[in-house]
């Protein structure tokens, strides 16, 4: 009897499937699509960076997620429901793995595993950052304390030369000097440690590779963490050059000398199966402050 019941259930399921597929007159047949309507994705999975991240600092300032309280103190209102990622590539991985996720990353780190949204109708591109139409952008800074060593100064000279700025441009960042002179270094010996922002690190690795091809006498170690750690490491003498993907704070400027090496946009990213293409600045703020929690409420 149990065997008969099992067969009957299986037959019933098969009949239902066939009926759904046949789509008699008047019936509608759903057509699969490559992307899902954002409204059908349910609760939004908010991905943010850790405290101390220069990308987070720039993001919360640019989108108004950070606001001053009654005493004039800056308060970060990022929702407590946000999942925290401690590196740029972790944000990308999390968004690529979740249909309901949204995150923000360095524009130069964008790849084809996720989708960048237009913000206020403007595409997130290096060209639009350069011409000012995409305003969600921040500087890439390096910083030193006191007089840099000979090899550290030579590496900085390379970064700011035409050769270094070409690498900046080739990697989808915006150079700070399109008319820089060609690098003419002295190939000094020595080792330097560069530490800080995980947003600046991918560009710094490209600059490191190109510089060492010209000066094999040097050794450069890159330690990736976040902007605040990079500045603290520079102030304490742990590293020779710090990296920050934001403006330096007053307390940092009191001890360090900053140098802008590039400009970078911040891209808002979603899963590739999300049908959304454009988002307003106000909606981004409302998502990251917890006012909007479901994709159905995203216009």
UniProtKB/TrEMBL annotation:
Query: What is one GO biological process annotated to this record?
Result: phosphate ion transport
Ranges annotated as spanning the membrane: none
Asked if the Swiss-Prot or TrEMBL record annotates the protein with the keyword Transport, the reply is yes
| Keywords attached to this entry | Lipoprotein, Palmitate, Phosphate transport, Signal, Transport
One Pfam family here: PBP_like_2
Q: Which InterPro entries match?
A: PBP_domain, Phosphate_ABC_transporter
Q: Where in the cell is it found?
A: Cell membrane
Kindly give the membrane topology term recorded for this protein. Lipid-anchor
Q: Which residues form a coiled coil?
A: none
Q: Where is the PBP domain?
A: 42-162, 182-297
Q: Which GO terms describe its cellular component?
A: plasma membrane
Q: What does this protein do?
A: Part of the ABC transporter complex PstSACB involved in phosphate import.
What quaternary structure, including any partners, is listed in this protein's UniProt entry? The complex is composed of two ATP-binding proteins (PstB), two transmembrane proteins (PstC and PstA) and a solute-binding protein (PstS).
Task: Write out the similarity annotation.
Answer: Belongs to the PstS family.
What name goes with this protein? Phosphate transport system substrate-binding protein
């Amino acid at each position: 009897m149990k065997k008969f019941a099992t067969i009957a259930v299986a037959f019933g399921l098969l009949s239902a499937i066939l009926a759904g597929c046949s789509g008699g007159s008047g019936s509608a047949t759903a057509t699969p699509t490559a992307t899902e309507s954002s409204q059908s994705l349910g609760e939004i999975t908010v991905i943010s960076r850790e405290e101390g991240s220069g990308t987070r600092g720039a993001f919360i300032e640019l989108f108004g997620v950070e606001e001053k309280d009654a005493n004039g103190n800056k308060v970060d209102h990022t929702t407590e429901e946000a999942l925290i990622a401690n590196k740029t590539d972790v944000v990308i991985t999390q968004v690529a793995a979740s249909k309901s996720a949204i995150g923000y990353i360095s524009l130069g780190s964008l790849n084809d595993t996720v989708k960048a949204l237009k913000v206020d109708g403007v595409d997130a591109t290096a060209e639009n950052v350069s011409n000012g139409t995409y305003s969600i952008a921040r500087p890439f800074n390096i910083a030193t304390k006191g007089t840099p060593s000979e090899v550290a100064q030579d590496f900085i000279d390379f970064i700011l030369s035409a050769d270094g700025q070409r690498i900046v441009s080739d990697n989808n960042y915006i150079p700070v000097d399109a008319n820089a002179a060609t690098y003419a270094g002295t190939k000094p010996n020595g080792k330097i440690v560069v530490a800080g922002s995980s947003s600046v690190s991918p560009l710094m690795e490209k600059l490191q590779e190109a510089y060492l091809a010209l000066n094999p006498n040097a050794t450069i170690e890159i330690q990736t963490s976040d902007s605040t750690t990079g500045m603290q490491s520079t102030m304490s003498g742990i590293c020779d050059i710090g990296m920050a993907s934001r403006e330096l704070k007053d307390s940092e400027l009191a001890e360090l000398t900053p140098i802008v090496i590039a400009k970078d946009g911040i891209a808002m990213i979603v899963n590739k199966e999300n049908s959304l293409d454009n988002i307003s600045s106000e909606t981004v703020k409302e998502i990251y402050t917890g006012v909007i929690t479901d994709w159905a409420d995203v216009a």
